[in-house]
Design brief:
2 domains, 0% strand, 83 residues, mainly alpha, rod-shaped, 2 helices, hydrolase, Exonuc_VII_lsu_C
Length: 83
Amino acid sequence: PTPSAAAEVVSRNQQELLRQIQNGQQRLEMAMDYFLANRTRRFTQLHHRLQQQHPQLRLARQQTVLERLRQRMNFALDNQLKR
């Protein structure tokens, strides 16, 4: 081929290579965004779960349940004594 035809082929090859690189870069960025979003969501879930299992929080919940049971018991005893 003539030098200008060869240059045109090289130019087309370079443009195609550049397009492929840009497509690959875009796919990689999308994959990284997806990966990071999943890791962030998982971290948030685990952090929330860990907070829910904190001993002070568990104790507070158990104390609330105990208080409700105590109130129910007192109510039942009052009803029995009134009969």
